[in-house]
Amino acid sequence: MFDLSAPQYWLDGDITLYPNAVNATTASHLYQQLHQEIHWRQETLTLYGKQHLCPRLQSWIGEPEASYRYSGKTFTPEPWTPTTGSLTQQLNQQLTQQFNAVLANLYRSGQDSMGWHSDDEPELGLSPIVASLSLGAVRDFSVRKVGESRRFMTLALPHGSLLIMNAGMQQRWQHALPKRARVSTARINLTFRRIVNR
Q: Does the N terminus or the C terminus of the chain have fewer Cβ atoms within 10 A?
């Protein structure tokens, strides 16, 4: 299903981007399916000792043992939905990976966002590979070097694109999805991961 031809490489190979991994018709169908299937919720996260409402809707989905802890909270996975299960199987085959969980994010508009972070939690192992599927509104994916405050680059992630954060990226780079006042439509993002610490 995924068209992994014509890859683009960024950050000396730390990122691989397939801008047209899923054609527009299929991507729109997937968006509708995921919007309906997933049990979306707005979590309360702890940042710097204070509790905040997460600035997006989320769901942690995967194998029963694939618990995940971040922002001071442990997430027990919801069962696979038909679409998330199917997409994970296809990606595992095409990328020769062993993803066993997916973090689904619903950005309701440009006011929803994701702050600077690295996906470097212990459960992900030493050099995780994370695959990120974007459906819906085009949003900017910003990157900066670990330890620096200045943005290094930004990639626009179109509807149906697949971005792979390759092994080693999380040790060298942080990423974010900043607010965009001009974006009025929603985006669903699935980030496929392998939980290795049980």
A: C
- Pull the structure tokens for residue 147: 């330890």
DSSP secondary structure letter of residue 132 = E
3-state class (DSSP) for residue 58: strand
Is pLDDT of 198 > 70? Answer: no
| Tokens at 10, concatenated | 């960024």
Contact between 174 and 118 under an 8 Å Cβ cutoff? The reply is yes
- The pLDDT tens digits for 149-166 are 999 999 999 999 999 999
- Cα–Cα distance for residue pair 27/60, rounded to 1 Å: 21
CATH class of 8-193: mainly beta
Question: Which of 96, 91, 54 is CA-nearest to residue 75?
Answer: 54
Mean pLDDT of the chain: 94
| CA separation for the pair 157, 162 (Å, rounded) | 8
37: its two tokens:
């299937």
For 152, the token pair is 């290094």
